[in-house]
Amino acid sequence: MSVAGRRIVLGVSGGIAAYKAVEVCRRLMDLGAFVSPILTPNATKFIGAATFSAVASERALTSLYDNVGDPSPHTRLGQAADLIIVAPATARVLAAYATGSSEGLLTATLLATRAPVLVCPAMHTEMWEHPAVQDNLAILRRRGVHVLEPESGHLAGGDIGKGRLPEPSEIVKAAEAVLAPQDLKGVRVLVTAGGTREAIDAVRVITNRSSGKQGHAIAEAAAARGASVTLVTTTDRAVSRGIERVAVNSASDMLEAVTAHRDASDVIVMAAAVADFRPAAPAANKIKKDGGVPEIVLEPTDDILRGLGEVKRPGQILVGFAAETDDVVANATAKLTRKNLDLVVANDVSAPGVGFDHDTNAVTIVSADGPVVEVPLSSKQDVARALLDAVATRLRRSTQ
Ligand code: CTP
């Protein structure tokens, strides 16, 4: 679920990583969330409340008491929140939260809410590994608090180790995951992404303009909805923790990886732009130009999707993509029948802002026996959500 329209309390406690919380705030705002920042007094030693006030939906608060016209900010914010994020969460704030202390505005708000809470601890490695901190986190986890673990890397003072606050984009993704409906829990999803690369010789390849963004967005959205996800990708895009990433290059690598995961998958989404043709005899060495212009003979690749359709097991959901330039729905429907698919995501790649390399897409989701869903020009994340809604509907139907 997107954070758009959600009321999010962003708690910031006193660590050097507090500056990164400004970026978290800005990204949440960009995505359409209503963000109320709370800074602990120690956080204000690292970053000014005015910075958050300038970026957020309402003035940043730092205390329970000095808020004119707002006598009970902790209950106002706690009761209205859809989500509370604490980033960075210091050892002290985690301890106060675990013991139910309400000494400051942030900890009081954490007690005054029934909304989900995401804590993002950040501290030095020794502190992170201390049994007191780990015991407090165990208590919080037991109570259903979501914990985004720190990363390894450079820490304050030049040290290196585990304890670093994850990047703002990761924190926002984790927030979206917490808000997502868990309607794909226990579902095994296999997604392919990116354009394949077919060797001409030792250095040259034939490829296409696919960026892999749409496939990656589907994998991320499925994981956020509780699915266990394997992503077979040709790109070097990072994936969230928890997604199994299988790196491939050519169509035949992709076929091998997909075949290995096929039978264990409940849903397979072929979002990759797989080459239809490859050089029949790639040269082992680099072809030198003084040999003249080479003639490159092509041969067809295996159609992975068609092969999956031929051996599809009952209940397995197979999704294909159709990059078309004319008669989009008619061609997609024909592909659906020809390849024995459940859903086809069709896009008119000739339309502006659609398909290859763009951050946006506009698609028509054609189903074997359900409604045709039009998704107007949207982010690739929104397209992913619409597709997974259609997948979840079919899964529900097949288990009824
Ligand atoms: N696909 C595949 N293996 C291939 C080629 C394509 O699995 N060798 C999958 C893509 O991942 C995508 C769908 O098939 O899900 C797109 O097929 P496309 O190449 O557009 O369709 P074709 O059936 O090959 O028809 P046409 O080339 O006429 O559009």
Notes on the structure:
By secondary structure, this protein is an alpha/beta fold. Helices cover 34% and strands 24% of the residues. It is built from 13 helices and 19 strands. The chain has an eight-stranded mixed beta sheet with strand order 12-11-8-13-16-17-18-19, with helices on both faces. Helix 1 packs across helix 8 (168-179) and helix 3 (73-80) packs across helix 5. The longest helix is centred in the C-terminal third of the chain and has 20 residues, at 380-399. The radius of gyration is 25 Å and the shape is elongated. The two termini are 24 Å apart. The mean pLDDT is 94. The protein binds cytidine-5'-triphosphate. The site of cytidine-5'-triphosphate (CTP) has 14 residues, from helix 11 and strand 16.
Short description:
The chain has 400 residues and is of the alpha/beta class.
Short descriptors:
400 residues, alpha/beta, five-stranded parallel sheet, 13 helices, binds cytidine-5'-triphosphate
N-to-C span = 24 Å
The Cα radius of gyration reads: 25 Å
Strand content of the residues, in percent?
Answer: 15-25%
Q: Taking strands numbered 1, 2, ... along the chain, how are they ordered across the largest sheet? A: 12-11-8-13-16-17-18-19
List the total number of helices: 13
What's the count of strands? 19
Report the average pLDDT across residues. Answer: 94
Task: List all distinct small molecules, including ions and cofactors, that are bound in this structure.
Answer: cytidine-5'-triphosphate
In which range does the helix fraction lie?
25-40%
Computed structural class = alpha/beta
Low-confidence stretches: none
